[in-house]
Design brief:
The complex is a heterodimer.
Chain A (H helix, E strand, L loop, with lengths): L1 H8 L1 H23 L6 H4 L9 H15 L2 H24 L12 H33 L3 H31 L1 H16 L2 H11 L4 H26 L2 H9 L4 H12 L1 H17 L12 H10 L3 H27 L11 H4 L1 H19 L15 H14 L1 H25 L2 H34 L2 H29 L3 H16 L3 H11 L3 H25 L3 H9 L4 H34 L8 H10 L3 H29 L4
Helix pairs in contact in A: 2-20, 4-28, 5-7, 5-10, 6-15, 6-17, 7-8, 7-10, 7-13, 8-28, 9-10, 9-27, 9-28, 10-13, 11-12, 13-15, 14-15, 15-18, 15-22, 19-21, 20-28, 21-24, 21-26, 22-24, 23-24, 24-26, 25-26, 26-28, 27-28
Chain B lengths: L1 H15 L12 E5 L3 H16 L4 E5 L5 H7 L4 E6 H14 L2 E6 L5 E7 L2 H4 L6 H6 L13 E5 L8 H7 L4 E5 L3 H14 L5 E5 L3 H4 L2 E3 L33 E6 L2 H4 L1 H9 L4 H12 L5 H11 L1 H4 L5
Helix pairs in contact in B: 1-2, 2-12, 2-13
The chains are: A mainly alpha, B alpha/beta.
Chain lengths: ~650, ~325
């Protein structure tokens, strides 16, 4: 806000800033046009500038592992996690481990889920939860889903606990919070694969590695929400707690945490969503279940069955999401004195009776205990046939599109990105930074891309940047009209938002294969897969931005004689723009994640190198590449946030 | 149903092999599975045979390159398919660090090279000769390769030196690397639908043989040293001017501690030996018949008792 006031109030400063921006842009253009005359050291980072960062990181990790004995520590932690996993694995799918009780019949699990749903959100949630587990059972996916859940029911609570502890510590110590914030920022923009390599080195492979990588991936939002919730607790509440004579711990446990309940539960919700997002990726290092099966099926091109598994993951995610949201919104119930116990625990009693009934019946009818793969109602084969027909039918269109995009759009843009001297790129970024946020932003932008220059991955990064830029632009061209159409009515926007939710949790690997079948192994398939993913936040935030515009404003504009088009251009869009830009920011983040995954189609960017680093368990290289991806995301994030804070009208 | 079958099969197996005194540790042997069907089925076959001699077995899915590090450290106990071409380097590197060793080779030989499905021959009748392939390079042109033909290679981390070969033999081809085996199959399936000619990286034994009949391109035959000595092969100035070995090994690998911890299972593993048709059959059961790998393993054991019962003596 201060920056804005200063900006408006001081024309001289404004002129000075403008002229610096012009100089920087001019320098960039001159260098780009006069590339032929530039010394080599300005075109690409010279040899002496590139630091052996990967070697340093590897030396550090070797030191940790071999000299510090970290391996023994991490392995014993992993051992603890494994003990928990063995218990859930026995209960859910009957792995041969203590307590040797399982597997619990599917009907019992489904009833339990439905009763919990009823308790949290009434009939609607009960139906959703029951139907989800019924679907899993009928599709013959029970075993796989339980393998997945056996890991998640361990990983999610551990992550929540860890997040609470770190969040509370950060709230108590300002210094820790200050250190933690940039770490969390980087952690949340590192590609998943970058985490996995150290996990393989320190933990090994298998369900325990899957659980630990899931915990690492899902803990940042929990830390953030705990910290945020505790900071928001009003002083009055604390005062009243103190007046009641509460000690420090009592204040925390009985006053602060319950008051921050809603924020903390949103954190829990985020943890669960992140856990489900990791289901497929974690199977690269041994997480069993749905993810692993999905990759096997895709390998054999069984798209239909893969889609069924994808739907299961989406259904589980939606159910758990609605559960935690309902839990977050629910206010604590106060039981009146003198209520008889059977009324007080009515729901638990109903559950007990139903479970005993189902458990007993499943002894008589084995189908209630287990539905095998062969007895399922999979329609995977039929979906495959339909897909085949569609691919053949639209082949002429896709064939032309592929040729047109590659020859006339992608190759020229890509060559342009690679042609730019690196000094010109840095100069241009400095100009953008300066224009948006003054000297500080300019320094930040140059520092971020300066890291990429010294990391030695300049060309690969440029290809990644090109893919992301092209994808986000195409996604925006598709998303904005969709969002405008969706805001036409409440029902429509609700439906479109639901589709966004589902597509976000739908495992992105499934998109890759049809994309290859349609377009082949090339940039069109890569961009196609990325666009599908990048469009989701664009649609979502545009809808929310447009619907967030106060109705009064629109009516006022209408009454002063503005046409619909004028209203859209001069009222709706400007007010919605900051929210839409958050969508753009998210779209860039999503694209960066997806570009790395699209390496499985075949790319020549950072993702391909990341894949190589994973297969050779090269921790240093993986982290250097991961940080290169993270810096792109962090830079865009910084610019957009800075920009949004200056355009937002004074409230 | 399937569980019942499995129980009966293993009961029968146990009866047959009850004479073996089991001194194996009661800790489960962890067997790694990868993302292709024949390997998963073979792992389950070996695992079920171990089960029949009274050893506990568990499976864990892992990356097929990173697995040698896991075997070396004893996180998993063994590997049933070590391909010379694809994993020879990772395996040798792990052997050098210590903790892992070879437990003999299968009869099956492996071959990995440029390959085409039969319909490609209509567009390029001179195949499988590599010079004939080069003459019809234009048939394989795509938008991204311009005038030249496209060769769809495997992921770069498979280290196949296709680009070096194209350069050494002065071929009119551009190597485009797919990012995964699934990307190769998807491209192949798409080409089948439209009848487009395609030449890509493939290997045997592999389920693809059963789905898409085809042939390997015949390059100048591999000679030992072709990758290091320019004098070998048709181009006197370049290495890699030859095809890949047509009879690569397929090994079994084990953690060094396995023999002490599970002597009986280890003795069985040294006997385990499969042929190309057997491995193709395992892949077929899963990829064509649509069986689950576990069931396919049980089925294979039931059908081929005469082959494997000898291994447990």
């Amino acid at each position: 806000m201060n920056a804005l006031l200063a900006y408006v109030a001081q024309p001289a400063a404004r002129n000075q800033r403008l002229s610096i921006v012009v100089i920087l842009v001019a320098a960039a253009i001159t260098m780009a046009l006069g590339r032929g005359m530039l010394p080599d050291s300005l075109i690409r980072p010279p040899e002496w500038m590139i630091l052996p960062l990967a070697d340093w990181i590897n030396a550090f990790f070797d030191f940790l592992r071999d000299d510090m004995g970290m391996l023994a520590v991490t392995r014993s932690i992993a051992g603890g996690v494994e003990t928990l996993l063995d218990v859930t694995a026995n209960l859910l799918y009957g792995k041969n481990r203590w307590p040797w009780l399982g597997p619990i019949p599917w009907s019992v699990v489904a009833i339990t889920a439905a009763v919990i749903g009823y308790g949290l959100g009434g009939t609607k949630l009960a139906v959703l939860a029951g139907a989800t587990f019924l679907w899993v059972a009928l599709m013959g996916q029970w075993q796989w889903a339980m393998e997945t859940l056996s890991v998640i029911v361990v990983a999610a609570p551990v992550s929540v606990l860890l997040g609470l502890l770190v969040g509370i510590s950060a709230w108590r110590s300002r210094r820790l919070a200050a250190v933690l914030n940039p770490i969390l920022n980087i952690a949340q923009s590192l590609p998943h694969f970058a985490y996995m390599i150290p996990v393989v080195v320190f933990i090994g492979v298998g369900p325990k590695a899957g659980a630990i990588v899931t915990i690492i991936f899902s803990v940042p939002p929990m830390i953030r929400m705990t910290l945020l919730g505790l900071q928001k607790v009003p002083d009055e509440v604390i005062e009243s707690g103190k007046m009641c004579g509460a000690t420090g711990w009592q204040l925390l446990l009985r006053t602060r945490l319950p008051t921050a309940r809603t924020d903390i539960l949103i954190g829990v919700n985020q943890v669960i969503m992140q856990c489900l997002a990791m289901v497929v990726l974690a199977s690269f290092i041994g997480m069993p279940g749905l993810g692993q099966k999905l990759l096997q099926l895709l390998q054999a091109l069984r798209i239909g069955q893969s889609i069924e598994i994808g739907l299961t993951i989406v259904l589980l995610a939606i159910t758990l999401d609605r559960f935690t949201r309902a839990w977050a919104l629910r206010q604590p119930v106060h039981v009146p004195r003198g209520m008889p116990w059977h009324e007080r625990y009515r729901l638990s009693l109903v559950w007990l009776v139903l479970v005993i009934l189902a458990g007993g019946l499943s002894q008589v009818f084995p189908l209630l205990a287990e539905i095998g793969r062969g007895q399922g109602f999979s329609v995977g084969a039929a979906i495959d046939v339909v897909m085949d027909r569609v691919i053949v039918a639209i082949y002429p269109v896709t064939d032309w599109l592929r040729w047109f995009l590659i020859v006339w759009v992608f190759i020229p843009i890509r060559d342009a990105f690679l042609w730019m001297p690196f000094a010109a790129v840095l100069s241009l970024l400095a100009a953008v930074g300066y224009a948006v946020g003054g000297r500080r932003s300019a320094v930040i932008c140059v520092a971020f891309f300066g890291y990429i220059a010294i990391s030695g991955w300049w060309d690969r990064t440029m290809i990644t940047v090109y893919t992301v830029v092209v994808s986000v632009v195409i996604a925006a061209l598709l998303a904005f009209p969709t969002a405008i159409w969706a805001t036409g009515s409440d029902a429509r926007s609700r439906r479109v938002l639901l589709i966004c939710d589902s597509m976000q949790t739908f495992p992105s690997f499934i998109y890759l294969i049809p994309m290859i079948m349609l377009f082949g192994v090339n940039d069109v398939a890569v961009v196609g897969a990325v666009v599908l993913f990048a469009a989701i936040p664009l649609v979502r935030y545009t809808i929310e931005g447009l619907r967030g515009v106060p109705l009064g404003l629109v009516e006022a504009a209408g009454m002063s004689g503005a046409t619909r088009r004028q209203i859209r251009r001069h009222v709706l869009w400007p007010i919605a723009l900051p929210t839409i830009m958050v969508g753009v920011n998210q779209a860039v983040m999503f694209s960066l994640f997806m570009v790395i995954i699209a390496a499985f189609i075949g790319t020549q960017d950072l993702g391909q190198e990341m894949q190589r680093a994973l297969s050779s368990a090269d921790v240093g290289k993986g982290l250097v590449l991961g940080l290169a991806v993270a810096t792109i995301g962090l830079m865009v994030d910084h610019l957009i946030m800075k920009w949004a804070s200056t355009v937002r009208p004074p409230s | 149903m399937t569980r019942m079958n499995m129980l009966m099969a293993s009961a029968a197996v146990t009866a047959m092999t009850a004479t073996i005194a089991s001194a194996d540790s009661s800790d489960p042997i962890v067997i790694p599975t990868h993302n292709w069907s024949s390997q998963i089925v073979m792992s389950h076959i070996v695992g079920q045979i171990f089960g029949s001699v009274g050893t506990n077995v568990e499976y864990v899915s892992t990356d097929s390159q990173a697995v040698y590090e896991s075997i070396r450290l004893g996180d998993v106990a063994l590997g049933v398919e070590v391909w010379e071409g694809a994993y020879g380097a990772s395996f040798d590197a792990a052997v050098e660090k210590g903790g892992i060793h070879s437990v003999g080779e299968h009869d099956a030989v492996t071959r990995e090279d440029w390959w085409y499905p039969m319909w490609t021959k209509d567009a390029c009748p001179g195949l499988p000769d590599w010079e004939a392939l080069n003459d019809c390079a234009a048939v394989f042109a795509t938008p991204e390769t311009g005038e030249k033909g496209r060769f769809l290679g495997g992921p770069v981390d498979w280290l196949k030196h296709d680009q070096e070969r194209v350069d050494a033999l002065d071929m009119d081809f551009v190597v485009i690397n797919a990012g995964s085996a699934a990307a190769l199959w998807a491209s192949l399936a798409a080409a089948e639908r439209t009848g487009e000619p395609i030449v890509l990286f493939n290997w045997t034994p592999n389920f693809a043989e059963a789905v898409w009949p085809g042939e390997f391109v015949e390059f100048p035959a591999w000679e030992t040293g072709c990758d290091t000595d320019p004098a070998l092969g048709p181009n006197p100035d370049a290495v890699y001017d030859c095809g890949n070995p047509a009879d690569g090994y397929l090994k079994k690998a084990a953690w060094d501690g396995m023999e002490d911890k599970w002597p009986t299972a280890y003795a069985v593993l040294t006997e385990v030996n499969f042929t190309n048709p057997q491995i193709a059959e395992m892949a077929r059961l899963v990829d064509i018949e649509g069986m689950e790998p576990e069931d396919a393993a049980t089925h294979w054991l039931e059908q081929n008792a005469d082959i494997w019962t000898g291994w447990t003596d």
